[in-house]
């Protein structure tokens, strides 16, 4: 089974570079079931990182092209590599292989493991987007809060101690003040920072890494012959 | 007061052409308050018409550029010229002048005039998008149904009798079966077909033309010194 | 276009008097589009001010009479001059000209300009009424909070500094604690105090004046030939 | 224990007259617990019957006066004698004795006895009012439908066979098409027609008579020393 | 009229013993209408007290047997003696006499007396259960909060002063911070502690005792010939 | 990785017998990832099949014991083998290994693959239970309908042609009339009948088999070190 992790930005050309892409691929591969091969690709033109809906939109056309190509290249499924799931519905309209978004997937996973979950994300600017995702996903009643570490995406990797400290602070507040009993990282860079297990043990609640949850969900779909509904995400009429 | 009607597609290069753009501008101008000047512009590259979320996404980056330019050119406000309000949130992040979307505006107008409204739109493929718009807008309890005439956008102008007949059929069904007491055209081409008044008189319920509602809402905002909230739609951090 | 601002109380006989009525008419006139003539009338018998549902009910029968008379007198539309929109549905049942309520109108305006709005009103006693208005309007998910300055209506005009100070305090708390990104004055006397622009500049969020929003909404309706749905607000059977 | 059934209209002067008032009092008395004394009073001026929100408003000021007087006269509680519960909140603001509305009470009773209930009422014109009552009461998810017999209130008593036939038709449709498992009469005159038991036996679901449910709820409140919350329905500030 | 209070645990064999059972029966009898006879029975095997869903489940099969036997023994109705209403739906499937649960009944009572209610219960472990009850009952919008005294059930009777102090603290916080205007005890042992009247007087809001509310609701049902809907709670197919 | 499929009934002693248990285990094993070992166990005493909430409750105490024993026996996770997820919350309170329910899991899977799903289940008597599950799961807005084949569980295996015919009829109606774009079998016996793939191809929408979805979800949880939240499902205080 071949799975593509599709980055909707120019990660290879950004500060993070191909080394970080390689690292993320390896993290995913380490969680993959026997027989699963994970690959990673980014887009030629688009945002460096996504901290606004504007930046989401910039990368979507190229990301959909990337996913269409992945289907042609024989991939069995695609993980959209941004918490905001940018262009997920559009991509699903163009391909038959399952495309999963870490945002919506992780919210449903959290809803299946507890009563109320909080999303810990980067900056205030993305909070409304995450709340709207929960609403579209039908998970809004389970969303206790969206909290932010208030660190720009491109600085996250460079300040790991600050990130961990701020993430723990917000996580504790989410549990105590917002009654969260499950936590979700609302940013791929936070998720790939590798803090989930340590935080979960310290806090006593599940901490969900959206890319890992997406990988396992996608593997399960492929193994059971499922994909997104083409009645829900139909091929655009002019492309039929 | 100068207002731009921004078409998120390549209308001037499509079958509809500059003549239709001119006609739409004139329709809007005819409803404008004394002192309002309406202009219309489309984008250089993008979809011919929008019948899927994929096509929405194709035009958004150029449409946002168009709106940013409009602000520089001294426009006082912008109407996004597609019922799906493609990229509305992204555009609002980049400018301070009010940008209004005919989709969300017409839904709130309908909610203010009755108890339940129905949207009459083009094809099945856009129904989930319209339902999600209602949800994001907080109008979902007021949405009685979304019904389709099942005619592609680019054929609407060429088959005016069929359009009117199908629109009336669906409108009657919406009123009788779905209990709608207010109707909204869920497509700009349908709205600019000029059927609203005749249908309203025949059916005995308000029939809202989203571009006209958007024009009047926008004029009112500008006259009272209001715009969208920059706290809700903040400038992307990297652009500050 | 002739518009009536209908006061559902005995303002001319109250402490506020005809001078305040004249002032309010002039404020509205100053925001009106060219060609709009605004008039103001109150009722012969009813409450001095409205701080309870009981007082709402006291003035409704006379207010509906006033609105029926306005239609006969050739007015093109009516603004109901109280934030609680007392008797709005009843008045709409009796006339064909559009009748708009500042409460519901301003809530929908706020929902169109941001994600969550707060209403700043007078006293605790009207909070449940405003929450129920949001619910009936289908705006409840967008309502962040209702906050009170805790000053009786009839003292508002006499203590402008205290009013401004208290309004700013509650506005700041709404933004910070309740995450409001848009504000609405939940009382006509507060709205006519003229603080909206100054507060908006100080706070960085839109501050909506319900009577102005109602005026602009009503002008737009009249200009586009719309009114409330008579299917939603039918003439009482015994009066047909 | 003394209970008043307060009619918010001029029943004694209507076609129905004092005889019907006496009959209703006797029906209530027959369901009362030992020791309960039921009385009935109407208002001097107001609507003959209520088939619109306009008519609701006409009778409210006098009905509130009637209820205030009832408290002075030593009544222990009041049933508001119209399904729309006109002025219930206003009346509760002015008195300390419990005032109960048959509309909201019967909806909660139905919610406690099944999963989905339907209201069978008189005419289309009151359907939105009943839906808004369910919303305010927090029962909207339990409301399967509101169906109408389409007979004016003042003709109900004169056409008992037609009423029964139409009520049974709508009840069967509510059960089969709307999945109702509990029924409520949405009109006092229908409720006092005495069809509940026969219909319940024929249909196999509970059929709730709102005035009887209100009587039993009110007796229970009085017996356990409860009333409506004065924090929720505070005395109007100017009357303190 | 004969009513059974069915304890879904082994109270007679617990620390509380038959003396407490007798006391509870007498409290209920003292609130009963003339002609009502209240009896109390517990189950032979099951939990000592209920502080988890696990303990709820342990007692349900025997409790349903107890209720089936009650119907055979000529009881006219049953009150399920635990706030969580354990097995209420299952019991209703097996009998025709009305079975009422203090949890759901008290929530609807609170919804009828105010705008928002809080439940004051024992421990954190039961909070999600109570929130789910409100959701199933269709009362979730009226539920302001669930607050806990954090005292195990079996210690409640032994520490009456601590219980009263903690209950008052949480009640005050519910009113002030959560805007509750009505309170409900979320535990039978708390309800039978007899604090309701004193707390209500001190706090100025209704304090509902669920077993008393259930008794009065049940008496009213029996007196008016109503029971739960057998369409909603059908006899299991294999038992027909 | 060792996974137990825990049957909350006496399947080995029923008409279905150990042969059917063996067959189900093999079906699950055939979908398992390399390295996963699936076992199946039923309970010594309980219902033959579950067609009511009463029968759910009968088997829960023994099923929880079975799950507690599974944890002691070294299983890494448990699938609760009934669509109603009977006792899921109670079981989660007692163990640390993940316990997943096919009902809630399949609903979230459907919500992740489309916009609206329908559940095709056995009989009318379980419909309210399934609707309440969707509500508790926070999926109620995504649930288009619950439809029934109207065949008792124990006859399903004996009438495979009738089952397939009825399932297809209801599936077609769900897609056309209820707008479902994804389907879920609401009964384990239906799910294990092996119709999912054939139906999905005939209907053009995903058809989810809850036990397979549960298996893949559970494998993913175990592989990523996740379990249900012990803050959401705490150990009962008396067992600590």
UniProtKB/TrEMBL annotation, chains A, B, C, D, E, F:
It comes from the Bacteria. InterPro entries: Asp/Glu/hydantoin_racemase, Hydantoin_racemase-like, Iso_Racemase_Enz_sf. GO terms for molecular function: amino-acid racemase activity. Pfam families: Asp_Glu_race. Coiled coil: none annotated. Belongs to the HyuE racemase family. This is Hydrogenase expression protein HupH. The lineage of its organism: Bacteria, Bacillati, Bacillota, Clostridia, Eubacteriales.
């Amino acid at each position: 089974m071949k799975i593509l992790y599709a980055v909707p930005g120019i990660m290879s050309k950004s500060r993070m570079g191909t080394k970080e892409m390689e690292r993320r691929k390896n993290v995913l591969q380490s969680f993959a079931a026997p027989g699963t091969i994970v690959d990673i690709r980014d887009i030629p033109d688009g945002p460096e990182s996504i901290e606004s809906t504007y930046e989401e939109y910039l990368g979507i056309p190229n990301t959909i092209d990337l996913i269409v190509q992945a289907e042609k290249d024989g991939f069995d499924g695609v993980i959209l590599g941004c918490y905001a799931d940018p262009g997920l519905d559009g991509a699903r309209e163009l391909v038959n292989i399952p495309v999963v978004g870490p945002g919506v997937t992780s919210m449903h996973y959290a809803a299946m493991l507890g009563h109320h979950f909080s999303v810990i994300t980067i900056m205030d600017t993305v909070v409304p987007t995450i709340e709207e995702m929960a609403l579209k996903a039908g998970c809004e009643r389970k969303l206790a809060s969206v909290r932010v570490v208030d660190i720009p995406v491109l600085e996250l990797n460079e300040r790991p101690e600050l990130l961990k400290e701020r993430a723990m602070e917000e996580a504790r507040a989410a549990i105590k003040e917002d009654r969260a009993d499950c936590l979700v990282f609302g940013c791929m860079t936070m998720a790939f920072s590798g803090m989930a297990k340590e935080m979960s043990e310290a806090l006593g609640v599940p901490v969900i890494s959206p890319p890992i949850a997406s990988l396992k969900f996608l593997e399960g779909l492929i193994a059971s012959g499922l994909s997104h509904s083409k009645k829900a995400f139909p091929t655009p009429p002019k492309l039929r």
